[in-house]
From TrEMBL:
Its EC number is 4.1.1.52. Signal peptide: none annotated. InterPro entries: ACMSD, Amidohydro-rel, Metal_Hydrolase. It catalyses: 6-methylsalicylate + H(+) = 3-methylphenol + CO2. Coiled coil: none annotated. Keywords: Lyase, Metal-binding, Zinc. This is 6-methylsalicylate decarboxylase. Residues 4-310 form the Amidohydrolase-related domain. It comes from Catenulispora pinistramenti.
Amino acid sequence: MNRIDVHQHIVPPFYAQAMPAHGGDPSGSRTPDWTARRAIDFMDAHAITAAVLSVSTPGVAGWDGEDRRAMARRINEYTAKVVADRPDRFGNFATLPLPDLDGALAELDHALDSLDADGVVLLADYEGRYLGDPVFQTLWAELDRRAAVVFIHPGATPHQPVLPGVDGLAGPLVDFPFETTRTAVQLVLNGTLDRYPNVRVILSHAGGFVPYAAERFAGLARVFRPEAPDPDHVLAAFKRFYFDTALSSGTAIPSLKSFAGADRILFGTDFPYAREDIAGFFTDTLDADDTLTMSERSAVAGENAARLFPRWAAS
């Protein structure tokens, strides 16, 4: 396998240290220790050639004003140094200081032009506004101009936390797939994907519920939005997303393949928030999936990602 992991997280030590004073992690997730050596050891153990690193939820949403911009810049500079040290093993989804649009646009320029980032990571929502909200259209327009790759991760911020352990169910266990689904549906029904067709958008965790409820969303769209396109158009828009496999192998893969096609599926692990044994379990389950042909296995493992990222186009 020549695997490229598009859903692997970096946890800069200064970020982890500062997070408790800036709202902590509203999802209730532990903040794992991270080092490049530990990441590479994990990758070597699971035949992962390379990984595109991103900061997970809650990103920099707990900081305010210039402090938020400064933390995003510091994270991106740190990650760029990790990539520069091992360009054969790592890439970088840059963090933007949203919902600060001016700051986000400035950081996008710096990340893509000066740091050679491979794309950007966006949370599903910021202060209760999901990514198809008109407030973000200026950002989408710039991402479209640059034909950028956007990795969407479920949102959980100090302003919009996921449900905190309702009935003993931790937010990330159930609510994260819903967060991804809600922002994806809004991006489609608000026409964002149609207006900005050059952006390549990756949805985390097999797209939440999108592949399994897309027909529902398409068929009911005009009930709630009479101006919505016809169902076939809506379904085609949903199929333009890419979907990573993080924490989503097993019975999810045949459904995802049936909906989106194997050429839209990308390998992901969610390491280190998913511990080595958990990430390994899902990877092993994916390897054992006999619904994928050998050529489809190769496409999902790395060939699809290599087409998205020039860094590994020759891999």
